[in-house]
Amino acid sequence: MTARGNSSPALRHRDAGSGPPAAAGGGETDDEVCRQVLRILALIGDKWSILVVGQLRDRTLRFSELHRAVRGISQRMLTLTLRQLERDGLLTRTVHPSVPPRVDYALTPLGTTLLDSMTALADWAVTHRHEVDDNRRRYDAAHPPR
């Protein structure tokens, strides 16, 4: 994405059909680009997807290794997350013929392109976590539950 003040259609949502083509000759309106980007961000912004991609950053892992590494995720949620990441081309699933079957997961080249952005976001969260917590406390004190 682009920095604040730039004209990325993903950062400035318009009413349906009101935007000019996002790219010369591309034929896509800003609204079409926005919808596509929001669908992708919903996936890669999901906490489980972020954690799975993070675990696969350095090596290929089996399902059971991922399940142990991503604390709190159920087997079903891990299965759904892996399936969606594979569908989007962010990881590969390799089944090895053995008894029991061995299944390995690894990031694709497209999946590895997420790592820098995810690391930057995680670094931002670490740097600003105390400030965010302080802001939440101040807000909660000024706006008690009704």
UniProtKB/TrEMBL annotation:
SUPFAM superfamilies hit by this protein: Winged helix' DNA-binding domain
Gene3D superfamilies attached to this UniProt entry: Winged helix-like DNA-binding domain superfamily/Winged helix DNA-binding domain (1.10.10.10)
Highest taxon of the lineage: Bacteria
Transcription found in the keyword field: yes
PROSITE patterns: HTH_HXLR
Keyword DNA-binding: yes
Domain HTH hxlR-type, residue spans: 34-133
Keyword terms, alphabetized: DNA-binding, Transcription, Transcription regulation
Stretches the record annotates as Disordered: 1-29
Record-linked PANTHER family: TRANSCRIPTIONAL REGULATOR, MARR FAMILY, TRANSCRIPTIONAL REGULATORY PROTEIN
Name assigned to this protein: HxlR family transcriptional regulator
